[in-house]
Write a structure and sequence with these properties.
With about 375 residues, this protein is an alpha/beta fold. The protein folds into two domains: about 15-240, 3-Layer(aba) Sandwich (Aspartate Aminotransferase, domain 2), CATH 3.40.640.10; about 240-365, Aspartate Aminotransferase, domain 1, CATH 3.90.1150.10. Helices cover about 35% and strands about 15% of the residues. The protein contains twelve helices and 15 strands. The chain has helices at about 15-30, 35-50, 60-70, 85-95, 140-150, 200-210, 230-240, 240-260, 290, 295-305, 330-340, 350-365, and strands spanning about 55-60, 75-80, 100, 125-130, 150-155, 165, 165-170, 175-180, 190-195, 215, 215-220, 265-270, 275, 280-285, 340-345. The strands form four sheets. The protein has a seven-stranded mixed β-sheet with strand order 1-9-8-5-4-2-3, with helices on both faces. The chain has a three-stranded antiparallel β-sheet with strand order 7-6-13, with no helix packed on it. Strands 12-14-15 form a three-stranded antiparallel β-sheet. α2 packs parallel to α7 (about 230-240). The longest helix is centred in the last third of the chain and has 19 residues, at about 240-260.
Length: about 375
């Protein structure tokens, strides 16, 4: 029997017929981009689902984050986490700011107790990252920001559909960025959005997203980051099925937990109390001495059986050679995580039998 390959992720898709039905109207309107009717419909539906007041859509999450930093007119230093995807730091640097890296906690999110020590007269904002569907200590971060007059931006690329104490996670901070990349819990093929507190920010975001245009005037050096109608159509289809998709992920998540939560040398994800989860990822932290095998060896072992896990996040963004210096000295925990975390396959409709096969290989070390 041919070996079955299991990738670390798989994109959720509506039926072919559903998507074709959704895009029919594009041939009637001949409106392909520039905030068309499907774009606007998706925007309103997402506003309701995500429980936010203000939202703007983008062609991808990276440009959404970049435009947020520009729209907020930030400069100087931004305190952030090194345990994140490259996009977070790239956006800070591309927006003309300097990233200042803060250590993380055992749940992989920024350690809010270490933020204040990093604040200087040059600090303009805190850019924290919700990781693996788990969230930062949003209340503590808001308190610090209010005390020091700083803006708060959340990279919520992993947090679509997450709620904290009944409140949409995008309702926290000044701005939150969500990625709608094909590999995420919810996607628009590529895409992303910003949710934000101040409705007046919408005009600044719109200019940054559309070449700096304000009517016929050019007000700033903007970019082109508009979501097109085919992306919006995929988003409308996928939004109809999102609760089913998250529930299916939850079944796989629970099965992993049942098999792996008490294994010596493995630490599974501990989620914040009061959180409505989205089951975006299933990371395991490996202690090589206790487990008897290091992360890289386990990744190879799984790969030999056609199972492709991901070293995520690896390497740390603070190891980027473009900085010209080693910026990992003050973030030893983040560095250790980057060397020892492995994300196991996680996607909607991942068969229980496949989860068991993955766990069996892990347990036969």
């Amino acid at each position: 029997m041919a070996q079955k390959f299991i990738n670390v992720t798989r994109s959720s898709m509506p039926s072919y017929e559903e998507y074709c039905e959704q895009i029919k109207s594009i041939w009637d309107t001949v409106h392909l981009t520039n905030m068309g009717p499907l774009h606007n419909e998706l925007k309103e539906q997402l506003k309701g689902y995500m429980k936010v007041e203000n939202i703007e859509l983008f062609v991808n999450g990276h440009l959404a984050l970049y435009c947020a930093l520009k729209a907020l007119k930030l400069g100087g230093e931004i305190i952030t986490t090194p345990f994140t995807f490259a996009s977070t730091t790239n956006a800070i640097v591309q927006a003309g700011c300097k990233p200042v890296f803060c250590e993380v906690k055992d749940d992989y999110t920024i350690d809010e107790t270490k933020i204040e020590a990093l604040i200087t007269e040059r600090t303009s904002a805190i850019l924290a990252v919700h990781v693996y569907g788990n969230i930062c200590d949003v209340e503590a971060i808001e308190e610090i920001a209010d005390k020091h007059g700083l803006k708060v931006i959340y990279d919520a690329a992993h947090a679509f559909g997450v709620e904290y104490r009944g409140r949409g996670i995008g309702d926290y901070g000044d701005v939150s960025m969500f990625s709608f990349h094909a590999t995420k819990v919810y996607h628009t093929i590529e895409g992303g959005c910003l949710t934000f507190r101040d409705p007046a920010l919408a005009a600044e975001i719109a200019k940054e997203r559309n070449f700096g245009l304000n009517g016929e005037a050019l007000d700033c050096f903007g970019t082109n980051a508009k979501m097109n109608e085919f992306q919006a159509a995929m988003g409308l289809c996928n939004l109809r099925h999102i609760e089913e998709e998250i529930a299916s992920r939850g079944e796989a998540f629970c099965r992993y937990n049942m098999r792996l939560k008490d294994v010596q040398g493995l630490t599974t994800l501990k989620c914040v109390e009061g959180l409505k989860q989205n089951f975006a990822y299933y990371p395991i932290l490996i202690d090589p001495e206790t487990f008897g095998m290091d992360r890289d060896q386990l990744a190879v072992k799984l790969g030999e059986s056609g199972i492709f896990a991901r070293k995520y996040f690896y390497p740390l963004v603070s190891e980027n050679k473009a900085f010209g210096e080693d910026l990992t000295a003050e973030t030893a925990k983040a560095l250790r995580f980057s060397r020892n975390v492995l994300c196991l396959p996680m996607f909607a409709h991942l068969d229980t039998a496949d989860v068991d096969r993955i766990c069996d290989i892990i347990l036969k070390k």
